Recover the amino acids of this structure.
């Protein structure tokens, strides 16, 4: 009885909150002062045409480092909980073979998916997307590979090496910004180049390559751990 | 006006697939419906001019999460004969 009353009360309170949000909503007609500063000064200060990237990688770079750390800890947690015991060989189970459609499509699709992922994080400072999105696309390519051939084994040596070295290099680039330019994760210790070119925006493409590789390898490792 | 119409239809899709995910008896179908809600959400993000978020939602929300759910279901419901 008390439980039902609590649930009802919570629902009513939630309803009141959402009703307020819906009835009092008015679309904002102008940017707030901080956004206006980012939009006006971002391209000149950091050389990135994609303002979202400028904010994520540089203005709010520390938050991004925190996100990368969160993802790393969850991937490490999955790896710890689902680790293989020594001498256990999970690859020899009888499995239903995957469908011929998936097996054939992967030969055509996998290279395209990888190229798309790399494109997304290389062009993060120019077009929508960036390290996280590109890394997630790379990992979905690995997911397709695991679905097409369940006996695929990823080389854990390469994965771990790529993941840890890109995470380390990300922090090194951040510290280089602290030493050579204005602050931690400042991208201006390399020339900004011409606005809109592939090689521009200082260290933003470098940082995004590291984030993309790190996110891609971490998510792939999680998928592979979950598989068997 | 067109945009509002499209966004409303897609949001109805999100709510419908979320309800399906809660009420479906088959746990595999429920996981697929949860992925479908993410897919609708990512199209809404594109319509509302947030392609960055849409990419993340499509790749992680509807792709990787669904497959991880399916792997987890298989691991937890596997028959213990081996």
């Amino acid at each position: 009885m008390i439980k039902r009353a609590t649930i009802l009360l919570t629902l009513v309170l939630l309803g009141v909150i959402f009703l307020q949000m819906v009835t009092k909503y008015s679309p904002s007609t102008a940017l707030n002062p901080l956004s206006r500063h980012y939009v006006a000064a971002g391209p000149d200060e950091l050389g990135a045409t994609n303002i979202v990237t400028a904010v994520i990688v540089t203005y709010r770079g520390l938050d991004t480092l925190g996100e990368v750390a969160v993802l790393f800890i969850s991937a490490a947690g999955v790896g710890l909980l689902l680790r293989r015991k020594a001498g256990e060989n999970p690859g020899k189970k009888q499995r239903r073979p995957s469908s011929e459609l998936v097996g054939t499509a992967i030969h055509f699709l996998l290279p395209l998916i990888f190229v798309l992922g790399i494109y997304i994080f290389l062009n993060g400072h120019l077009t929508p997307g960036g390290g996280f999105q590109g890394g997630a696309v790379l990992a979905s390519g690995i997911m397709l590979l695991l679905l097409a051939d369940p006996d695929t084994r990823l080389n854990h040596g390469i994965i771990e090496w790529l993941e840890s070295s890109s995470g380390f290099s990300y922090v090194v680039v951040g510290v280089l910004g602290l030493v050579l330019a204005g602050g931690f994760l400042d991208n201006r210790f390399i020339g900004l180049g011409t606005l809109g070119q592939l090689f521009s925006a200082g260290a933003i493409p470098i940082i995004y390559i590291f984030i993309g590789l790190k996110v891609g390898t971490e998510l792939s490792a999680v998928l592979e751990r979950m598989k068997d | 006006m067109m945009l509002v119409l499209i966004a409303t239809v897609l949001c109805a899709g999100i709510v419908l697939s979320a309800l399906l995910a809660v009420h479906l008896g088959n746990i595999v179908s429920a996981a697929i419906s949860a992925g479908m809600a993410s897919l609708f959400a990512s199209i809404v993000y594109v319509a509302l001019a947030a392609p960055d978020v849409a990419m993340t939602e499509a790749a992680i929300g509807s792709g990787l999460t669904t497959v991880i759910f399916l792997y987890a279901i298989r691991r937890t419901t596997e028959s213990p004969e081996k």
Observations:
- Chain A touches chain B at residues 52, 93, 120, 128-130, 132-133, 136-137, 139-140, 143, 147, 219, 222-223, 226-227 (CB under 8 Å).
- Residues 42-83+98-227 of chain A form one domain.
